[in-house]
Each structure stands twice: as structure tokens, then as C-alpha cells.
Design brief:
This protein is an alpha/beta fold and about 775 residues long. It contains 23 helices and 27 strands. Strands 2-3-4-5-6-9 form a six-stranded parallel sheet. A six-stranded mixed sheet has the order 11-16-15-14-12-13, with helices on both faces. Bound molecules: beta-D-glucopyranose. Beta-D-glucopyranose (BGC) binds next to loops.
Length: about 775
Amino acid sequence: MIKKSVKLLALACSATAFLQPAIAQTKKDPAMDAYINALMAKMTIDEKIGQLNLPGAGDIVTGQASNSDIAKKIREGKVGGLFNIKSLAKIRDVQRVAVEETRLKIPLLFGMDVIHGYQTTFPIPLALSCTWDMSLIEQSARIAAIEASADGINWTFSPMVDLARDPRWGRVAEGSGEDPYLGSQIAKAMVKGYQGDDLAKDNTILSCVKHFALYGAAEAGRDYHTTDMSRVRMYNEYFPPYKAAVDAGVGSVMASFNEVDGIPATGNRFLMTDVLRKQWGFKGFTVTDYTGINEMIDHGMGDLQQVSAMALRAGIHMDMVGEGFLITLKKSLQEGKVTEKQINDACRLILEAKYKLGLFTDPYRYCKEERVKRDVFTEAHRRKAREIATESFVLLKNEGKLLPLKKSGTIALIGPLGDSRENMPGTWSVATDLSKAISIREGLTKALGGKGNLLYAKGSNLVSDSLYEQRATMFGRSLNRDGRSDEQLLQEALQVAAQSDVIVAALGESSEMSGESSSRTNLDIPDVQKNLLRNLLKTGKPVVLLLLAGRPMTLTEEHQTVPAILNAWFGGSEAGDAIADVLFGDVNPSGKLSMTFPQNVGQIPIYYAHKNTGRPLGAGKWFEKFKSNYLDVTNEPLYPFGYGLSYTGFEYGNPVLSSTKLSGNQKLRISVTVTNKGDRDGKETVQLYVRDLVGSITRPVKELKGFQKIFLKAGESRTVEFVIGTNDLSFYNANLEYNWEPGEFDIMVGPNARDTKSVRISWSK
Ligand code: BGC
């Protein structure tokens, strides 16, 4: 049974998978073509432009949709879809207006940011990526699709696959971290989870990969900021996850807010047409991000008519919120600034999506009342969310085996994040009922089941600055700022701590400290909380830092002073229970970081797959004059990519290779024996890295090329095998040709990107 799952995983994570041609995008459907040709023959130019318009839903009141402003627009044929309406009744109401009160009765698309679950909420995507378990990630997207489709939604703005190496950028929380290979596997798994094998089923929804492209490389980690990078970096590092989603058949693509090569992505023909359609064979439709067209005015690209025409010509098909298309395209057509063909092409792609979703056969396909009760926030879904959350937590430190805790004695839970339901699900949980999430306090109390005693004190506010706290707790996520002074809160906490055997300090970020428009320049645990932690440590009691975070934080001090650190990210609606599962050892943690944790902000951007430079620092050295290093801190991260501990310990043998001299299309088999040396069963993610020693362009010092997550009973050994071919060695050269180059390679295997064992091979043509 265990063997079988290892094999399956090996297949799922085959290193070559994302390079396969875009089969999923090339299916022909003559019946669909005939249907849409006939429909479009009846459409006026205004009706066609109307299909390209995607307004937000506004304040539709259930039962009164037909009187709303949006209904008026729909009746006039000016709306192709709506987004972020929650409630089946409202969706049904407006769909009825579209299919009963418009001339051509074209149904609407209903989009939503179903980013990490619907009402049942999974860990934030960055946390999900730390499971390194593609099956679980796919299941999370599947459940999200089941719940969203039961509630009227047929289109999700997910997955977000923006590679990110700057944790100052708050949106790292929404993506899968720093690595193109891991990010690509996750992109595929999520698209598959949402779209299934047939979009017309009533429980599958259209996926939208975003934000194309390079949004994660915003300068200085400031949201919406300029992006500028070389083409080789784009193609080798930042593009692969978007391409993987396209190869997996994603139905739509969202343009990013940033510019690329001086042209905002929304108006960037190189991205939207040359790369996406011509090079990758994408056949679905593209949509702007929220007011993406209008924002090109501030980017300095012209007035609304100019930027709208520019977007259409670039290859954008749907306009989110800004109505630039609606207001100006007809005029641009009359003035010869856009062609009728460009409008027709865009309209056709949107109608095709509706056709594939089965909306022309049954516009209420996703509006079946009985499904809401049956399929949303079910016990089974919540159990799965709890399981997935436990797999996403990363144990960063565990000195003297402080964890797991015993379910006895007195535990002091202290910290401003310890007793809040609203803070648990994490950023972008639009459909979650925040009041139903499980808080840490509730989770621990339930798990103790009366066998131990749990005391609680807030200990501090989120941050000392109340205005900062306001900005960081928007959208109903208040942490109920305490009016007492910092000192009063601290003294109360110390009194509670004094009565305990062990302290669990629930500290870190509020959920809205990451996500959109939540960039930070200081990634420490906020001031008052840090002070609280220092004082808790002074009590001499054992302290566990239970970290909540939407990004890698700077924990250098905590790593030195706190014996145990469990990073629980934001674990979704069931996080409180999942945290209890891991803290008490009912589940052994197995998450591994998908993003490097820096020692300090000055090291950013820091990522494992960096280049060697012409002056690399000698191995194990801190500083050498005239080498690439810092005066004040080593080059090492605090925690490397791929890192994460377990309550048990794993030992790696030396990698064994089928050959060290290969040629042409041969395959290299790499095996390594991993042993569970501890006294608990546990899971380990075995990672394979490759270094291409000499290339026609400089190559990274290490690149992830495979991984397998295995389960080992205490004392058990297992030999894990990876197979790679020349496809896995391929990269885009200076002419952007994709190929491999013969020469020497280091093959590295290990538990993270730092602690690998290496064998050198040569591979000739
Ligand atoms: C975000 C997108 C999101 C959209 C719709 C934008 O502000 O950048 O990720 O899908 O809003 O809510």
C-alpha cells in the first residue's frame, strides 16, 4: 500500500511533465463552433462588446435583483459575467434576468476569488505548497470547486502562481513560493482540481491562472510596483508555473497589474499573444485584473479609449470592473483603432467558455438549491481541511523534544492571535464564515478534553501603533484591540504564565498583514509581541512559539532564544483543531518550506536557486574580502528552502546512481535510502536537485527537479527512486531556445536545499 503511493507520487512529480505540449488546449469541438457561429451571427456589435464586460456585483439584494442597477445593465446586454456575489439566490436572480429578459438570452459567468477553499477553508496557498503533496492540493481545489459550484459560482480566479522571492510582498501568501518546479506541479494540481475532466459537470468550475506575468517580482516587494527582468530569467524561472497551468488546460488567464518591459501586462502583446497564444498554444480567454485597463492611464499609456484599444489589440478579452471596453470600443472600431475581428475573437472566446461550462444547455446548472446543504461546509470537507492544515505546518525548531506537548498539566496560551476565530482562515477567504472558524484556544481546549488545564491571556495587542493595527485587521478581521496599556497586558500574561507548566505563545501576523496591498518592510514579529515573548522566556518556563504568518518572517532572535517554533501559517477554517493535532502529537508535522526564510530583511531577495557569481564565497565561510558576501551577516538563510523538521528523525544514505557517464536519451536513475531513526512514524519529503556546472548561460547553483513525500514507520527504511532525462536538464538559452547542453552535472539529494549529498556525472550528446 505504502509502496504504491510512492510510485504514484513519483509519477505525479515527474520532472518532465510541465514541458509536454499543450494537448489539453487543442481539442476541437465542431458542435460548439456551429452553436457559437449561429449565435454570433445574431449579435450586434454592442451585444458583443457587452460580453466582454465583467462588473463587480455591487449590492444586489436577494429577491430584488431585477430592480438593481446591475440588472438594468444586464437587460441592456452590457454584461458578460459578474464576480464576487455570494448567495445562490442572488445568482439565480441575476441569471434569470440574463436568460429571460435579454434579447439573446446569453447566460452569465459568475466568478469569485475561491483561492484556498470556499466556505470550508484550506490553508493559505503558501502553506498548502508546504505540504509538497500534490494529491492533497488537488483535493483541496476539488472540494473548493464542489462547494463554490453548489453555491452558484462557475469560475474561480485561482490558482495564483506568481513566483515570489521577496517576502516583503504580502501576496506571497497567495502563491506557492519561490521555485518554478514546485510551483508548476502545484499549478497543474490546482487546475485539475477545479476543472476536473469535464467542465460541463455541475461540480467543476473554470479556473483562471493569475497574474500573468511576473507580478511576484515587484520592486522592493511593494505591491503593484514595477517589474523588470531579463528574458532568460522570465522563461527559465518565472514563466514555468503559468505555462504548466496552460498545459493542464486552464480555461482562462488573468493579466497582472505590473508592467513588463515597460508595458503594463494588460496592454502587453508580447505576453498576451506572443507568449500565451503563439508559443504556448493557449486557447481560452484572458481577463484583466480589477480595473487593470483603467490603471494603464496612471501607468502613463494614454486615455481610457487608448488604453482600452491597446488592451484589446494586445489580446485581452474581458475587462474586469473598469468598463473601458464598454465605454470606448465601439468608438475605437469606428475610428479604425481596433478591428471587428478583434472584438469578435474576444466575444467568441467568452461564449466558448460559457458553452464548455454547459451554461447554454442549462444556465442554472450551478444553481441547485439542494446542493448547498449537501455540499457546502460538510463534515467530510472540514475533516479534509483539518488534515491538510496539519500537513502544511512547518516545525522550524524543537530543542530537547519540547514538542509534542502532553495532554496534561497546565498550558498557558498567550498572545493576541490565540483567541480569534476571525484571524484563522487567512487572507482572501472571501466565502468563509469567519465566525465558524476554530480558534487556537478552542482547538486546544477541545483536544485536552478536560485532561489538562488551559489558561489564556492576550498578553499584548497586535502592534503598538493602533493605526497600523487598523490597517492590518480590515474586512471583519478585528483582533478587538485591548484598551489596557502594554504593561497591564504584559503583567496579566505573566501572572497566567506563572501558573503554567508550559507556555504556548501564539504570535506573529494578523491574517490581513499578508495578501493584497499588505507589503511590509520589517518582517519581525511585531514590537509588542516580541517584547511579550522576551518576557515569557524570562519566566524560565518552556516556551513554544506558535507562529502565525502569511510570509517568511525574520526570526533570527527567536531561533536563538525559543526552544520550539511551529509555523502554522494561516491554516483555514479548521486551523485551531489542526494546530492542536500537531502540538499534542496526534499528527507528526511534515511541512517543508517552499520559500526561504531570511536572517534579516537586508538579505532579500534570497532564494536557493541563485547563481554562483564570479566571486563565490568559499563553502562554510562567513566573510572573505572581495568575495560576494556581507560584512554584517552570513550569506546563509535562517531556514533554507525545503526545510522542515519532524517529531522523528530521518537519515539519508548516499545517493546511488545507475551510471555516472550518460549519453543522449538515456535515463538516469537516482536512488537514496531514507531511514526513520526516531521513535515515531512520520512523513518525509525527499528532494532531488541538479546543478549544471557549465552552460552557454550561467546556471543556478541548484535546481529542484523532483521530490517524493513518503511515510516511514519508526525504524523503517525505504529506497526512493527518481528518474531523470535530458528534458530535466533543459533550459532557455540566450536565444530563448529550449534545450539541454552536454557536460557535467551535480546530482544532489537531501531533506532540504541546504543539506544535500552530491554525486557528479557527465552527460554527453
Ligand atoms: C486581485 C485579483 C483578484 C481580483 C478580483 C484584484 O485586486 O489582484 O487577484 O482576483 O481583485 O477580486
